[in-house]
Recover the amino acids of this structure.
């Protein structure tokens, strides 16, 4: 007579736990990489020439409308903006030439605020700037974020 | 082990729900005409970005263009050691100014300078 053998079905949880941990690491990593400092703005739709990354010392200016400039999430007037840029230039070891300036204009505005900004930068001897674009036509930045930092 | 898996699952659900993938951002670099720099003369090519009320969006010399891809084609035929000054009218669209910067970047011109229209 055969001995009665009881078989209990068991799931092997190890591969699932591995996958879950990998997913966890992925989400932790990508949540760090999202550009939290950048506010949502309808950037001009262009492929651009390089991916926009946050660099140390970068000055990000959002242009939300003809009269609205944002720095570090706070609205500033054009004169306040220039005062902050002057501070950055004074802090920069390379002077105005070393200023790393990124402009994030709303695609619906006219060029007037950008031109006003350039006129002031030109007077201060700033020679380079970058304009943010979006290749997808979506909204740049994240909803939870604020404007970039001077 | 079970409680650990529970916690890990909860964390995973949290990150999946709160993950917000930002639209990728790119950038276009250009120069700014310095007020103190003495310019010996006009740059060889002046690309004008016209007012939104104008009958065209761009102008190079006497040629007026309405199409960004036609502008890019035209700039590609310019010698790569040539500089371009992009003169943008105050009433122009930001989108058109960005299109002009993109076309100049794509043409790999020697220098690209953003100039507000006088």
């Amino acid at each position: 007579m055969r001995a009665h053998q009881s078989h209990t079905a068991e799931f092997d949880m190890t591969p699932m736990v591995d996958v879950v941990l990998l997913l966890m690491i992925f989400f932790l990593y990508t949540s760090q990489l999202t550009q939290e400092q950048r506010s949502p703005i309808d950037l001009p739709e262009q492929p651009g020439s390089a991916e926009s990354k946050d660099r140390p010392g970068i000055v990000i200016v959002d242009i939300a409308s003809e009269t609205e400039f944002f720095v570090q999430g706070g609205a500033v007037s054009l004169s306040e903006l220039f005062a902050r840029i002057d501070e950055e230039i004074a802090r920069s070891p390379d002077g105005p030439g070393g200023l790393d300036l990124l402009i994030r204009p709303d695609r619906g505005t006219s060029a007037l605020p950008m031109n006003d900004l350039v006129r002031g930068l030109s007077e201060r001897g700033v020679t380079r700037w970058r304009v943010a674009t979006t290749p997808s036509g979506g909204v740049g930045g994240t909803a939870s974020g604020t404007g970039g930092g001077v | 082990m079970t409680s650990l898996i529970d916690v890990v699952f909860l964390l995973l659900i949290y990150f999946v729900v709160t993950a917000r993938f930002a639209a990728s951002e790119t950038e276009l670099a250009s120069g700014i005409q310095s007020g103190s720099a003495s310019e010996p003369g006009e740059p060889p090519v002046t690309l004008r970005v016209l007012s939104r009320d104008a009958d065209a969006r761009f102008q190079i010399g006497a040629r007026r263009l309405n199409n960004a891809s036609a502008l890019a084609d035209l700039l590609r035929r310019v010698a790569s050691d040539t500089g371009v000054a992009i003169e943008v009218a105050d009433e122009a669209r930001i989108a058109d100014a960005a299109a002009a910067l993109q076309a100049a970047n794509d043409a790999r011109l020697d220098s690209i300078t953003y100039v507000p229209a006088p």
About this structure: Chain A touches chain B through 60 residues (CB under 8 Å). The CA atoms of residues 76 and 144 of chain A lie 20 Å apart. Residues 142-150 of chain A have pLDDT under 50 and may be disordered.
